[in-house]
Amino acid sequence: MTMPVLIQHHKNTVVETRLKKFYSAINQAVVMAENDYGDKIYWYEDLEGAQTDADGNLIPGSSDAEKWFNKYLAPYMKILKTEELADGTFIVYFPDGSALKQFKQDTTRDWLFFPQNAAKCMDGNPETLMMLGKCAFAFNFQPRALNQDWKYHNNKGFEPWMWQWDGTRDTLLNGCKGETPYFCTALIQYEGWKIPKDYPQRISY
Predict the structure, then answer these.
(1) Fewest Cβ atoms nearer than 10 Å: which of 127, 136, 142, 164?
(2) Is the pTM value of this prediction over 0.85?
(3) Beta bridge partners of 137
(4) Residue 11, SS3 per DSSP
(5) pLDDT in tens, 162-178
């Protein structure tokens, strides 16, 4: 194999390994939290991130989402540091170089996982759709899903984003290559946490 091919293969392997590792670690944390706080459907909350003052500056320590994460999940995971971001979200960094970010300020349902170089991924891709499936991967935590659109998340832990998925590989593949790159994470999971040969995005971090 040529050097570019070897480099790409290495990047793919890093993503595969860290996606699988994160999925296991975060869901183990959910199980351990259940041991201490009861069924996740009762302690799960959909919360907002940091608030701003009259001048538009973030108010440190005001994120209910971060407080929730620090109570229910952080104690059961190895975390290097937590950082509040200018958009009101927060991000946690893990020892292996990966990171987990609250997707948007107004929800703790949706999350972005960065296998490597989160700052570079976010800086180089101001629009979410530009980074998904390449250097960021979508997860959802919604154990109290109330309708069929979210049936693959109801009473589950952190799962790859699968809103309105019909259960077929073709839908995951077509979504990943088109207007629903949120499906890229689920496509990799569908393949046993392996990036398939027909994967439509180029891993870059």
Answers:
(1) 127
(2) yes
(3) 113
(4) helix
(5) 999 999 999 999 999 98
Residue 127 pLDDT > 80: no
Rg (CA), the chain: 17
Tell me the two tokens of residue 91: 């991000």
Reference 184, options 112, 102, 100, 104; nearest CA is 112
Cβ–Cβ under 8 Å, residues 164 and 149: yes
Question: What is the 3-class SS of the chain, one letter each residue?
Answer: CCHHHHHHHHHHHHHHHHHHHHHHHHHHHHHHHHHHHCCHHHHCCCCCCCCECCCCCECCCCCHHHHHHHHHCHHHCCCCEEEECCCCCEEEECCCCCEEEECCCCCCCEEEEECCCHHHHHHHCCCHHHHECCCEEEEECCCCCCCHHHCCCCCCCCEECCCCCCCCHHHHHHHHHCCCHHHHHHHHHHCCCCCCCCCCCCCCC
Question: Could you read off the pLDDT of 34-69 as tens digits, one per residue?
Answer: 999 999 999 999 999 998 888 778 888 899 999 999
Amino acid at 197: K
Pick the closest to residue 138 from 95, 194, 181 (CA basis): 181
Domain ranges of the chain: 3-190
- What percent of the chain shows pLDDT beyond 70? 98
Query: Which one-letter amino acid corresponds to residue 141?
Result: F
